[in-house]
Amino acid sequence: MLKKDLRTHFLELRKNTSDAIIEEASLVLANSLLAMPIWGHTYYHIFLHSAFKKEIDTGPIITLLRGKDKEIIIPKIAPQNQLQHFLLTDSTTLKPNNWGIPEPEHGIKVSPSEIEVVFVPLLAFDRKGHRVGYGGGYYDSFLSECNENTEKIGLSLFDPVDVISDSKPHDIPLDYCVTPEKIYTF
């Protein structure tokens, strides 16, 4: 399927998913991460979810990362479809952006080259690890700035589609995608 068709389809599926199912799936995903070979790293980048868009609640993953004494990096949308990355600390002040997504107002910036694991938001993914986001290009640009060894982990409420037919050569595939049912490795 084409990315635009997948966006429409999966946004509709999300819209019809209850908050209780999203809450349960978010806990299952966080617990599934414990079985993954990703815990030898220090710097973990994670998006703060939008409840309005019915995204996976990343709060349980953040709790898990804090419990393992990991450095947590969160994004802030900057001009020209870019992300800035800030260390999440006890003194980080969060403020909702225009889309209702909490972002750090200021803080300690972290270079993408220092980030070792990225939890990637997505709407859909395929069996080769290609993903469909919201179409703004924020994560495509960000992932291209990361170290080639950075582990990219998608978080999805739904299982993969067979193929995203209009994936581009510059699209950076995931290394893993975690769903409530399974961990996919690419």
From TrEMBL:
<keyword id="KW-0479">Metal-binding</keyword>
<dbReference type="GO" id="GO:0035999">
    <property type="term" value="P:tetrahydrofolate interconversion"/>
</dbReference>
<dbReference type="GO" id="GO:0030272">
    <property type="term" value="F:5-formyltetrahydrofolate cyclo-ligase activity"/>
</dbReference>
<dbReference type="InterPro" id="IPR002698">
    <property type="entry name" value="FTHF_cligase"/>
</dbReference>
<keyword id="KW-0547">Nucleotide-binding</keyword>
<dbReference type="GO" id="GO:0046872">
    <property type="term" value="F:metal ion binding"/>
</dbReference>
<protein>
    <recommendedName>
        <fullName>5-formyltetrahydrofolate cyclo-ligase</fullName>
        <ecNumber>6.3.3.2</ecNumber>
    </recommendedName>
</protein>
<feature type="binding site">
    <location>
        <begin position="3"/>
        <end position="7"/>
    </location>
    <ligand>
        <name>ATP</name>
    </ligand>
</feature>
<dbReference type="GO" id="GO:0005524">
    <property type="term" value="F:ATP binding"/>
</dbReference>
<keyword id="KW-0460">Magnesium</keyword>
<dbReference type="GO" id="GO:0009396">
    <property type="term" value="P:folic acid-containing compound biosynthetic process"/>
</dbReference>
<dbReference type="Pfam" id="PF01812">
    <property type="entry name" value="5-FTHF_cyc-lig"/>
</dbReference>
<keyword id="KW-0067">ATP-binding</keyword>
<dbReference type="InterPro" id="IPR037171">
    <property type="entry name" value="NagB/RpiA_transferase-like"/>
</dbReference>
<feature type="binding site">
    <location>
        <begin position="131"/>
        <end position="139"/>
    </location>
    <ligand>
        <name>ATP</name>
    </ligand>
</feature>
<keyword id="KW-0436">Ligase</keyword>
<comment type="similarity">
    <text>Belongs to the 5-formyltetrahydrofolate cyclo-ligase family.</text>
</comment>
<feature type="binding site">
    <location>
        <position position="55"/>
    </location>
    <ligand>
        <name>substrate</name>
    </ligand>
</feature>
<dbReference type="InterPro" id="IPR024185">
    <property type="entry name" value="FTHF_cligase-like_sf"/>
</dbReference>
